[in-house]
Each structure stands twice: as structure tokens, then as C-alpha cells.
Predict the structure.
Amino acid sequence: MNATDDGRPSPGPDAPSGRAQEIRLDGVSKVYADGTVGVAELDLRFAAGELSVLVGPSGCGKTTTMKMINRIIEPSTGRILLDGEDVTRVDPDRLRRRIGYVIQSVGLFPHQTVRTNVGTVPRLLGWDRRRIRDRVDELLTTVGLDPAVHGDRYPAQLSGGQRQRAGVARALAADPPVLLMDEPFSAVDPVVRERLQSEFLRLQALVRKTIVFVTHDIEEAVRLGDRIAVMSEGGHVEQFAPPGEILGRPASPFVADFVGADRGLKRLAVTGIDVADLERPPVVHVADGLADARAALERAGARWAVVLDDDDNLRGWLSADRATGAGTVGPAARRMEAWVPVDASLKTAFATMLQLDAGWVAVLDGDHFLGVLTPESLHAALRRSVEGSAPETAGAV
């Protein structure tokens, strides 16, 4: 066995490189012996480091497409290129050691501890015990499981969400460049599912793997995906584009019907706040006199003003009926409840308006006040994002 510079055994020629790699499907199809077309000829490119989602109704070929990538199902025609290498010509067992795989039922070995499960592929690759243990501890911590608490437990002793986290850790154990995920969060309740999705987005921001993710849920696809492939019966890709384009400009009646009539609301979740869309209401400062504040409101013809400190950090708001008498603005200001960070989505801003029954929501960079979103400016921002998108259809690579 070869050794690395630090004396540890090298992972060998079949080991994953860790670096995210592009996946390219070139004329890939699956036709069964009875002539049934499971997947039509696909030409798709899953970019390195991106999370691409395959979504569509049952029987559309999304899982078949994903399983052809690691050759659990052999393609009938075409090439599958992983970082430029045609993997249809390599040994399938060696290929699968280079690709992480997470399924709906998790697939943990019930008779093995969590620690042993997570270390499965590194053991097959010949890593030494210390290296495996360090990697397992690192990954369990990363996915939110305490190695000291959960490492020696068996799958039956974990909750559904914990088993899913352990499954993700096992898939990442050998640092594969590619991760395949087949409806991994669909078997848990909605609250746990949302939490797992949030944790997975955090994890992907850290590891930046090339991920192909299968789901039947368009809301999950929109939340997680960098790009979404909407598939129809017969294994056809109707549209392959970022979520905003799928929702804003469906490429076919099938896509429009699949994403739903409420796609405008769904689009709010994938549209960020643009500072250029913010309105600037009257602004007063905590040390200003109430008489000066009242004069500022009268000049602007406004009924309220935003209250800032000397560093333009948000300190509340002041209504016209409280801008009376002597004294300064500070004691008369009211607490500002309706606010969102600048990196929030339009959906979060809209939800905040509705929850607090507010006519506007302040947008902050830390504590620094940037402006406000009103229903009118929010709608205009959404319209502009739709008009600025360009549709993509299947096959563009």
C-alpha cells in the first residue's frame, strides 16, 4: 500500500478527489426489453459545485436518470462524463466509491453503529483506523450529531431526522466529488424536513459538492436547487433552468401546470432583496428635537418617520401624533418590529408584513438602516425579476 507524505496510507487510484466535478449526460437514454422508454435521450450538464434538482411526477424517469449516473441502472445509449471521463466504461463498483449516495430510507446497516456506518467507504478504500475515526467525528459534528453521544448508537436508537443526518455523513465520508440524493427528506415529518433542508443548505455552502437531487416536491426543488430540471412522462426534460426562471417563465404548458398557479408566490422565495428597490421614508435621529421632527414630517407630508442613531442604525419609528411637545425624539420613538436583513428573500419580507400587519418592512444590513419595502415596491421588484429572466429549455449544455 502506498503512503502519503505524513505516513498515512494513500487512498489509492479509486478514491474520490474531493474536488467538485461536472457531470455531463450526452445522449443518455434507458429503453427496457419490452420497448418501454424510461428516459429519452438526454443532453444535460450538471455544473461542478451546484445542486441540480430533478423534479416531476411519478414515472417520469427522474430516479432512473440519477441511478444511471452511478450505474445502478445501466444506460441503453449515450455517455455519462464525470469530469470529462466516460464512466460508462469503468468498473461500476469502483465508480460508486467515488460517488456519495443518499436515499429516502437512508440505508444504514442496522447491525452496525453510526460510527461504523459512516466509515464504510473509507474502510473499503484502505484508510487507517485513526484517519477514519477523525473523519467520522468531523462529519458527525458537521451534520449536527455529537460523536460522543451518537457515534456508538445503532440506527434504531436514532430519530428519523438523526438517521438522515447520519446517511448524509456516510455519503460524504470519503469526500466524494459527486453526491446523489433520492428523495432523502420525504420520509420525515414537515417540521423535521424543513430543519433538514436548512441544515443541508448550510452544509452545501461549506462543502460545495456537485449534487443531483431527486424530489417530486416543487417547493423543495425551488428551495434547494441552483438549477431545476422539470421532467415529464417518458423521461423528457421540459425545462432546465434556475428556480426563478422556472417559476417566472415556464417553458411549456406542462411546466406551468406542474409548478402551479401560485408560482408567483413561490418566486418570492427565490428572489432576493435589491437595495435599489427600497424606498426612503422620512428619517429623524434620536437626538433631534420633537419640534424639528414634526417639521420634517410636515415637509414630507408623511405620518411617520424612521428613527436612527448617529451611525444610521435603526432605533425605531416615530408617528406624527407622538411628535408633539418639547424634548427629543428618542423617548418618543416606538420599537420597530417589522424588519428583515438585507440577505432575506422577498417571501420573508412579505411574510413579515403579513404577520405584523405592517404596511412596510425595514431592511437592515446588521443594524444599519437601508430603506423600506412596501407592498408596491415588493411587487415591482418581483415584476422586474421576471422580466429580466431568460427562459432555458432542455438540451442546452
